[in-house]
Design brief:
Blueprint: E1 5-17, E2 21-24, E3 30-37, E4 40-44, E5 47-51, E6 55-59, E7 65-69, E8 74-84, E9 90-93, H1 100-113, H2 116-141, H3 145-148, H4 151-160, H5 171-174, H6 179-190, H7 194-212, H8 218-224, H9 230-241
Antiparallel strand pairs: 1-8, 2-7, 3-6, 3-8, 4-5, 4-7, 6-9
Protein backbone atom coordinates (compact mmCIF):
# COMPACT_ATOMS: atom_id res chain seq x y z
CA UNK A 1 0.00 0.00 0.00
CA UNK A 2 2.64 2.55 1.03
CA UNK A 3 4.70 1.95 -2.11
CA UNK A 4 1.89 3.56 -4.11
CA UNK A 5 1.09 6.63 -2.02
CA UNK A 6 1.49 10.19 -3.28
CA UNK A 7 0.06 13.73 -2.96
CA UNK A 8 0.13 13.53 0.84
CA UNK A 9 -1.52 16.26 2.92
CA UNK A 10 -1.70 15.91 6.71
CA UNK A 11 -5.04 17.33 7.81
CA UNK A 12 -5.09 16.87 11.57
CA UNK A 13 -3.62 14.98 14.50
CA UNK A 14 -4.67 14.45 18.09
CA UNK A 15 -3.58 12.42 21.11
CA UNK A 16 -6.47 11.38 23.32
CA UNK A 17 -8.21 8.73 25.40
CA UNK A 18 -10.07 6.06 23.45
CA UNK A 19 -13.85 6.04 23.50
CA UNK A 20 -15.15 2.77 24.88
CA UNK A 21 -17.37 2.37 21.81
CA UNK A 22 -17.69 4.15 18.47
CA UNK A 23 -19.23 3.42 15.08
CA UNK A 24 -17.90 5.22 12.01
CA UNK A 25 -19.61 5.38 8.64
CA UNK A 26 -17.76 6.55 5.53
CA UNK A 27 -14.60 7.82 7.22
CA UNK A 28 -13.75 11.33 5.98
CA UNK A 29 -9.97 10.89 5.61
CA UNK A 30 -7.25 8.28 5.57
CA UNK A 31 -5.83 7.79 9.03
CA UNK A 32 -3.20 6.09 11.13
CA UNK A 33 -4.30 5.14 14.66
CA UNK A 34 -1.26 4.50 16.86
CA UNK A 35 -2.15 2.70 20.08
CA UNK A 36 -0.19 3.88 23.14
CA UNK A 37 -1.98 1.87 25.83
CA UNK A 38 -4.96 -0.41 26.30
CA UNK A 39 -6.60 -2.68 23.75
CA UNK A 40 -9.17 -1.89 21.04
CA UNK A 41 -11.24 -4.40 19.08
CA UNK A 42 -12.19 -3.25 15.56
CA UNK A 43 -14.82 -4.79 13.31
CA UNK A 44 -14.12 -3.90 9.68
CA UNK A 45 -15.70 -5.67 6.71
CA UNK A 46 -16.89 -8.43 9.08
CA UNK A 47 -13.31 -8.99 10.24
CA UNK A 48 -12.18 -8.67 13.86
CA UNK A 49 -8.92 -6.79 14.34
CA UNK A 50 -7.17 -6.36 17.71
CA UNK A 51 -5.10 -3.22 18.26
CA UNK A 52 -2.84 -3.26 21.30
CA UNK A 53 0.08 -1.22 22.66
CA UNK A 54 2.73 -0.27 20.06
CA UNK A 55 0.46 -1.34 17.19
CA UNK A 56 -0.94 0.90 14.45
CA UNK A 57 -3.90 0.47 12.13
CA UNK A 58 -4.36 2.16 8.76
CA UNK A 59 -8.00 3.14 8.18
CA UNK A 60 -8.75 4.20 4.59
CA UNK A 61 -10.97 7.06 3.56
CA UNK A 62 -14.58 5.98 3.06
CA UNK A 63 -14.33 2.91 5.29
CA UNK A 64 -17.07 1.79 7.70
CA UNK A 65 -16.11 0.25 11.03
CA UNK A 66 -16.82 0.08 14.73
CA UNK A 67 -14.63 -0.50 17.74
CA UNK A 68 -14.67 -1.08 21.48
CA UNK A 69 -11.77 -0.07 23.71
CA UNK A 70 -10.56 -0.82 27.22
CA UNK A 71 -10.98 2.05 29.73
CA UNK A 72 -7.22 2.70 29.88
CA UNK A 73 -6.88 3.15 26.11
CA UNK A 74 -4.81 6.05 24.76
CA UNK A 75 -3.92 6.63 21.13
CA UNK A 76 -2.60 9.12 18.58
CA UNK A 77 -4.49 9.74 15.35
CA UNK A 78 -2.87 11.19 12.23
CA UNK A 79 -5.41 12.01 9.52
CA UNK A 80 -4.37 12.74 5.95
CA UNK A 81 -5.44 12.88 2.33
CA UNK A 82 -3.39 11.09 -0.31
CA UNK A 83 -3.57 9.14 -3.54
CA UNK A 84 -3.27 5.49 -2.45
CA UNK A 85 -3.66 2.29 -4.43
CA UNK A 86 -5.17 -0.84 -2.89
CA UNK A 87 -7.06 0.83 -0.03
CA UNK A 88 -7.65 -1.64 2.76
CA UNK A 89 -7.20 -1.62 6.56
CA UNK A 90 -3.84 -2.90 7.73
CA UNK A 91 -2.17 -3.36 11.11
CA UNK A 92 1.53 -2.73 11.73
CA UNK A 93 3.78 -3.32 14.72
CA UNK A 94 5.67 -0.20 15.81
CA UNK A 95 7.89 -2.01 18.28
CA UNK A 96 11.02 -1.04 16.35
CA UNK A 97 9.93 2.40 15.14
CA UNK A 98 12.28 4.76 16.96
CA UNK A 99 10.05 7.87 16.76
CA UNK A 100 6.92 6.30 18.28
CA UNK A 101 7.44 8.14 21.59
CA UNK A 102 7.77 11.46 19.76
CA UNK A 103 4.47 10.82 18.00
CA UNK A 104 2.63 10.11 21.24
CA UNK A 105 4.27 12.86 23.29
CA UNK A 106 4.79 15.73 20.85
CA UNK A 107 3.46 15.21 17.32
CA UNK A 108 -0.13 16.40 17.77
CA UNK A 109 0.77 19.47 19.85
CA UNK A 110 3.59 20.58 17.57
CA UNK A 111 1.52 20.03 14.44
CA UNK A 112 -1.26 22.26 15.84
CA UNK A 113 0.67 24.92 17.75
CA UNK A 114 4.35 24.62 16.85
CA UNK A 115 6.53 26.85 14.71
CA UNK A 116 7.13 26.18 11.05
CA UNK A 117 10.29 24.32 12.10
CA UNK A 118 8.20 22.12 14.41
CA UNK A 119 5.73 21.41 11.61
CA UNK A 120 8.59 20.35 9.32
CA UNK A 121 9.77 18.05 12.11
CA UNK A 122 6.31 16.47 12.23
CA UNK A 123 6.29 16.06 8.46
CA UNK A 124 9.73 14.47 8.62
CA UNK A 125 8.60 11.97 11.28
CA UNK A 126 5.46 11.19 9.25
CA UNK A 127 7.58 10.33 6.23
CA UNK A 128 9.84 8.24 8.47
CA UNK A 129 6.72 6.36 9.51
CA UNK A 130 5.79 5.78 5.88
CA UNK A 131 9.33 4.59 5.18
CA UNK A 132 9.16 2.23 8.16
CA UNK A 133 5.91 0.55 7.15
CA UNK A 134 6.95 0.47 3.50
CA UNK A 135 10.02 -1.49 4.56
CA UNK A 136 7.78 -3.88 6.52
CA UNK A 137 5.62 -4.47 3.47
CA UNK A 138 8.66 -5.00 1.26
CA UNK A 139 10.06 -7.53 3.74
CA UNK A 140 6.76 -9.39 3.60
CA UNK A 141 7.02 -9.58 -0.17
CA UNK A 142 10.65 -10.57 -0.27
CA UNK A 143 11.93 -14.01 0.54
CA UNK A 144 12.30 -14.02 4.33
CA UNK A 145 14.78 -16.87 4.70
CA UNK A 146 17.82 -14.61 4.76
CA UNK A 147 16.42 -12.66 7.70
CA UNK A 148 16.06 -15.86 9.66
CA UNK A 149 19.86 -15.94 9.74
CA UNK A 150 20.01 -13.12 12.29
CA UNK A 151 17.17 -14.41 14.49
CA UNK A 152 19.58 -15.85 17.12
CA UNK A 153 21.03 -12.37 17.65
CA UNK A 154 17.60 -10.70 17.62
CA UNK A 155 16.31 -13.16 20.23
CA UNK A 156 19.45 -12.66 22.31
CA UNK A 157 18.95 -8.90 22.28
CA UNK A 158 15.38 -9.27 23.53
CA UNK A 159 16.62 -10.72 26.83
CA UNK A 160 20.10 -9.16 27.17
CA UNK A 161 19.75 -5.66 25.73
CA UNK A 162 20.12 -4.05 29.20
CA UNK A 163 23.12 -6.16 30.23
CA UNK A 164 26.13 -4.12 31.31
CA UNK A 165 28.47 -6.51 29.50
CA UNK A 166 26.57 -6.75 26.21
CA UNK A 167 29.06 -6.93 23.34
CA UNK A 168 27.39 -5.65 20.18
CA UNK A 169 30.42 -6.55 18.09
CA UNK A 170 29.97 -10.21 19.05
CA UNK A 171 26.35 -10.58 17.94
CA UNK A 172 27.33 -11.84 14.49
CA UNK A 173 28.98 -14.86 16.10
CA UNK A 174 25.61 -16.05 17.37
CA UNK A 175 24.53 -16.30 13.74
CA UNK A 176 27.75 -17.85 12.42
CA UNK A 177 28.22 -15.12 9.81
CA UNK A 178 30.64 -12.25 9.31
CA UNK A 179 30.13 -8.97 11.13
CA UNK A 180 29.68 -7.11 7.83
CA UNK A 181 26.99 -9.49 6.57
CA UNK A 182 25.25 -9.39 9.94
CA UNK A 183 25.19 -5.59 9.97
CA UNK A 184 23.83 -5.47 6.42
CA UNK A 185 21.01 -7.88 7.24
CA UNK A 186 20.25 -6.10 10.52
CA UNK A 187 20.04 -2.69 8.84
CA UNK A 188 17.86 -4.11 6.05
CA UNK A 189 15.43 -5.48 8.63
CA UNK A 190 15.37 -2.72 11.26
CA UNK A 191 16.55 0.32 9.27
CA UNK A 192 19.15 1.11 11.95
CA UNK A 193 22.55 -0.29 12.91
CA UNK A 194 22.76 -2.76 15.82
CA UNK A 195 24.31 -0.04 17.98
CA UNK A 196 21.55 2.47 17.13
CA UNK A 197 18.95 -0.20 17.88
CA UNK A 198 20.42 -0.92 21.32
CA UNK A 199 20.80 2.77 22.20
CA UNK A 200 17.21 3.54 21.21
CA UNK A 201 15.81 0.69 23.32
CA UNK A 202 17.99 1.53 26.32
CA UNK A 203 17.32 5.26 26.35
CA UNK A 204 13.58 4.78 25.85
CA UNK A 205 13.52 2.38 28.79
CA UNK A 206 15.55 4.83 30.89
CA UNK A 207 13.04 7.61 30.20
CA UNK A 208 10.18 5.36 31.35
CA UNK A 209 12.08 4.50 34.54
CA UNK A 210 12.84 8.15 35.29
CA UNK A 211 9.24 9.18 34.66
CA UNK A 212 8.00 6.52 37.09
CA UNK A 213 9.65 8.40 39.97
CA UNK A 214 10.99 5.17 41.50
CA UNK A 215 14.62 6.20 41.05
CA UNK A 216 16.31 9.57 41.50
CA UNK A 217 19.90 8.60 40.75
CA UNK A 218 21.14 9.02 37.18
CA UNK A 219 23.99 6.62 37.89
CA UNK A 220 21.58 3.95 39.13
CA UNK A 221 19.24 4.30 36.15
CA UNK A 222 22.13 4.25 33.69
CA UNK A 223 23.27 0.90 35.10
CA UNK A 224 19.74 -0.49 34.99
CA UNK A 225 19.62 0.04 31.22
CA UNK A 226 23.14 -1.19 30.52
CA UNK A 227 25.47 1.84 30.83
CA UNK A 228 28.53 1.68 33.05
CA UNK A 229 29.36 5.33 32.38
CA UNK A 230 26.58 7.72 33.54
CA UNK A 231 28.16 10.61 31.61
CA UNK A 232 27.95 8.69 28.32
CA UNK A 233 24.40 7.68 29.24
CA UNK A 234 23.44 11.33 29.82
CA UNK A 235 24.95 12.39 26.49
CA UNK A 236 23.09 9.61 24.65
CA UNK A 237 19.83 10.53 26.42
CA UNK A 238 20.12 14.21 25.53
CA UNK A 239 21.01 13.40 21.92
CA UNK A 240 17.85 11.29 21.57
CA UNK A 241 15.36 13.52 23.43
CA UNK A 242 16.92 16.97 23.37
CA UNK A 243 16.99 17.33 27.17
CA UNK A 244 19.03 15.82 30.01
CA UNK A 245 17.83 12.84 32.07
CA UNK A 246 18.09 14.92 35.25
CA UNK A 247 15.27 17.15 33.98
CA UNK A 248 12.91 14.15 33.98
CA UNK A 249 13.41 13.21 37.62
CA UNK A 250 10.26 13.89 39.63
Amino acid sequence: MIDFIKDINIISSYHTKSKQYAKIQSRKTNGFILKQSGVSEYIINDKNITLSENKMIFLPKGSDYQYTSSPDGMYTSINFDASIDNLEPRVYSLEDFRDVNFIHESFSYLFKFGSITDKYKCLSVFYELLSYISRIENLNRLEKNKYHIIEPAVEYLKTHIFDLNLKIDNLHRLCCISDTYFRNLFIARFNVTPQEYVISKRISQAKSILESGDFDSIEEVSKLVGYKDPLYFSKSFKKMYGFSPSSVIK
